[in-house]
Design brief:
mainly alpha, 80% helix, 74 residues
Length: 74
C-alpha cells in the first residue's frame, strides 16, 4: 500500500511539472503570436502606403495609362 502511494505521489509530481511547462510554453507562444500579429499589421500598412505611392506616380507620369483602364482596341 505504501509503495502505491509513493508511485501515485511521483505521478502527481510529474503531471504538475508537465502542466507548469505547458503553461510556460503557452505564454511564450502567445507572446510570439501577438508580436507576429503586430508585425503583420505594420507590413499591411506599409504595403498600402506603397500602393498609394505607386498609384500616384503612375498618375503623375506623362502619357501613362492606369492599369485598370481598358485599352482602346476593346
Amino acid at each position: 500500500m505504501n509503495e502505491s502511494r509513493e508511485k501515485l505521489r511521483e505521478r502527481i509530481e510529474e503531471l504538475e511539472s508537465q502542466a507548469a511547462f505547458q503553461d510556460q510554453l503557452h505564454e511564450t507562444l502567445n507572446a510570439a503570436v501577438a508580436r507576429q500579429d503586430s508585425e503583420i499589421m505594420e507590413l499591411k500598412r506599409h504595403v498600402g502606403l506603397l500602393f498609394e505611392r505607386l498609384k500616384d506616380m503612375g498618375e503623375a507620369a506623362p502619357g501613362a495609362q492606369a492599369q485598370d483602364e481598358v485599352p482602346p482596341h476593346y
